[in-house]
Each structure stands twice: as structure tokens, then as C-alpha cells.
Amino acid sequence: MGKTIGFLEYKRVDEGNKKVEHRIKNYNEFTVPLEEKKLKEQGARCMDCGVPFCQSSSGCPIDNLIPEWNDLVYNNEWKEALQRLEKTNNFPEFTGRVCPAPCEGSCVLGLNNPAVTIKNIELAIVDKGFEEGWIKPRLVNTRIEKKVALVGSGPAGLAAADELNQIGYSVTVYERSDRIGGLLMYGIPNMKLGKDVVDRRVDLLRQEGVEFITNTDIGKDISTKDLKKSFDAVVFTTGATKARDLPAENRNAIGIYPAMEYLTSNTKSLLDNGYADKSKLSAKGKNVIVIGGGDTGTDCIGTSLTTGRKIWSPILKLMSQPSQRFRLSKPSPGQSGR
Ligand SMILES: Cc1cc2nc3c(=O)[nH]c(=O)nc-3n(C[C@H](O)[C@H](O)[C@H](O)COP(=O)(O)OP(=O)(O)OC[C@H]3O[C@@H](n4cnc5c(N)ncnc54)[C@H](O)[C@@H]3O)c2cc1C
Ligand code: SF4
Predict the structure, then answer these.
(1) CB under 8 Å to 149, separation ≥6 — which residues?
(2) Is 219 in the pocket of ligand 1 (CB under 6 A)?
């Protein structure tokens, strides 16, 4: 385990956030990582529970070996920590940034203390792995003579592609959009998940042998029948992009958009030409009302603020209260937001 009485010695500390004034002037990620010394102390808080609820069914959905890498970080064994993390997690650089961290909500320490800061430690391990050059393409030596097509390149498609490719299948991923990543690319905004982070992983997968084909809508550009003829197996990882509409009076009035249309348009414009085009759905100079106060609503608020710099004032007021940020109620101890 970390340090025998580390949970008594050290308080929970989380990564920081850049100041609101700074954040609304650019589109970059806004978190400030903890320094290594602090991360070690946070690892030391883990009690290595006999039944680690953090990694069981009520905690991490992919059974990350959390107490093991908490201990390794405390003992400065970062490379080994990365190896343990990679045993269960295909893309810790995504989950370390945007997972809602049910592990922290299930952490036993959270019963009477703030939970272990698991998500920040996870991200630090993988970020260090990239910085140190420990994460390299894992080339596949023996190929099975079977071809698999994956339809959809969101996190589900990418994870399936990674697993099948490493076993030795020849994998082709079809994506109807112009970029790979699904909602990692065009749903979750830049400020929460930089698109260079997504591209870096896609490049690795490409170097490992996965083929990606964009701008191809299966069912329209290629029929599923033809796809089945050309491949030994077809896997559908198409997500659920269809919006839940709000059939209220005047729903069809000008200027009302589903979140995904708005977010996609803005991210695409940022990546294509740094917001130079006029075709995007822009919040610039407009008053914006967001209906729905969940994570997607928060993403729309953040995007409107950075692109439009003008938003319904009660929301700005809420943002500038550091303890509340976007929340309307106080989070439970250790329950981190996305
Ligand atoms: C705005 C927003 C913010 C979010 N933020 C977070 C967050 O912070 N943390 C978190 O954990 N989750 C978040 N989520 C949820 C998360 O993004 C999804 O759960 C996740 O992306 C689902 O992955 P997926 O691979 O199943 O589908 P998707 O990511 O939707 O990917 C499916 C892909 O399939 C493609 N496709 C569909 N049909 C076809 C076809 N016929 N031919 C070719 N391609 C096709 C689509 O274009 C898409 O790229 C967010 C969701 C939204 C909408
Ligand atoms: S539940 Fe919390 S304290 Fe226990 S092993 Fe997991 S992270 Fe450590």
C-alpha cells in the first residue's frame, strides 16, 4: 500500500484550474496538473483496501488496478505504474481527462474523508508515459488471416480496433465524419479534451496497423451487404448521435439548435481554420440560453463563453464563484466532475 498512515497525514488535493479570465480567451484545456511531489502524497493516501471498491463493479467500469498504481506512484515507480494502467485501459489519456470518475465516488476513504484523487493520478501516469517516450507503437508480429470492419470511430470503435488489432486481425475503421474520434473529436470540446490528444492516439493506432477510412457513411456510401462480403466480421460501434428533441411551442424558430450541432460546428471550425469561417454556429455578440444543466449543457456554456464572450449574466456570476463553478449544488466529497 501507499504509506501506512498516509491517509491521516495528507489531505486530498486536486489539480487546479486556470483562472476564468484566462480560460475564456483561448480554447485550450484549462486544468493545471499537480506537481510530482504532490501526486506521490496523493498516492500515499490510498489504503490498499482488502476489498477495493474503487476498482470493483460500483467503481471503475473497466476494473483499473487502482491501488496497485497508487502504490507505484507513491514509490516513484512511474513506468511500472503505466504498465499496470495499460493492462486494463486502452486510452488512459482520455479517461484521465474526461471520465466522471465513479472510482472516486466508490473509494472507501470517501466514507469519512475526501476520496483518493484517483483520476488525477491516472492522468499523470499516462501523461508522463508520453513525455518520457515510454508509449510507443506496439507492432503486431503475427497476423491472423481475418479481416474485421468497424463502423464508427468513437471511443468504443477505437478500443475495439485496438484489441482486435493487437490479437492480429486486420482492422479497418469506417467513419462517416471527416475526422476520427466520434464524440471525443466533435462532442467533448477542446477545453476538456485537446484534439491533439485524440490525434496522437489515432496516429499510434495507425502505426500499429489499423486502417482508418473517413467520409464514408456505411449504409449510404457502402451497403452493409457489401461490407459483409469484403470482411470476415463487421462490428457496429456507431454511438447514439441522434438528439432528444424538445417539442415545445416555436421549437422551429430561428436560432435554436441541438447541442451536438452547435458543438460540432464550433470544433470543426476551430480545427479547420481557427474560427475564420463564417458558416459556423457562432455565439459571438449573442445572448445565449442553454436548456439543460448537465455536462453537455456545461460544454455549450464553455464554448459560448470562449467563442462569444457574452452570456446570460447569472451564468457568468455562477462561474466566477470558485467553489461552485458550474454546479448548482455542492458535490459529495471526492466526487469529481468531468
Ligand atoms: C457534448 C458531449 C460531451 C460529453 N462529455 C463527456 C465527458 O466529459 N466524459 C465522458 O465520459 N463522456 C462524455 N460524453 C459521452 C461520451 O462522449 C460517449 O459516451 C461516447 O463518445 C460514446 O462512444 P461511442 O464510441 O459509443 O460513440 P460515439 O463517440 O458517438 O462514436 C460513434 C461514431 O460512429 C460514427 N457513425 C455512426 N453511424 C455511422 C455510419 N453509418 N457509418 C460510419 N460511421 C458512423 C459517428 O459519426 C461517430 O463518429 C459526452 C457526450 C456529449 C454529447
Ligand atoms: S477504495 Fe480508495 S483507499 Fe481503498 S484501495 Fe481504492 S483508492 Fe485506495
Answers:
(1) 172, 173, 174, 227, 230, 231, 233, 234, 235
(2) yes
Q: What is the mean pLDDT of residues 162-173?
A: 98
Looking at the structure, tell me whether residues 151 and 187 fall in a common domain. Answer: yes
Split into its structural domains, the chain has a count of 3
Length of the chain counted residue by residue:
338
> Is the confidence at residue 337, as pLDDT, over 90?
no
Distance CA(171)–CA(210), nearest Å, equals: 5
Report the pLDDT value the prediction gives residue 278, as an integer from 0 to 100.
Answer: 72
152 lines ligand 1 (CB under 6 A): yes
Ligand 2 touching residue 47 (CB < 6 A) = yes
Question: Residue 179's domain spans which residues?
Answer: 147-236
Confidence of residue 338 (pLDDT cuts 50, 70, 90): very low
Residue 17 maps to a domain: yes
In angstroms, what is the span from residue 78 Cα to ligand 1's centroid? 31
Residue 76 has pLDDT above 80, yes or no: yes
- Domain end residue (candidates: 236, 268, 298): 236
The span from the CA of 36 to the CA of 29, in Å, is 20
> Do 229 and 268 sit in the same domain of this protein?
no
Q: Please name which ligand lies nearest the alpha carbon of 244.
A: 1
**Average pLDDT value for residue range 226-236:** 98
Closest Cα to atom 53 of ligand 1: 187
User: Which amino acid makes up residue 230?
Assistant: S
Q: Rounded distance, CA 184 to CA 193, Å?
A: 7
From the CB of 49, is ligand 2 less than 6 Å away?
yes
311 CB under 6 A from ligand 1? Answer: no
* Residue 105 in domain: yes
Residue 54: nearest ligand to its CA? 2
> Rounded distance, CA 174 to CA 101, Å?
30
Ligand approaching nearest to the C-alpha of 150: 1
Q: With respect to residue 244, please indicate whether it lies within any of the assigned structural domains.
A: no
Question: Is residue 222 over pLDDT 90?
Answer: yes
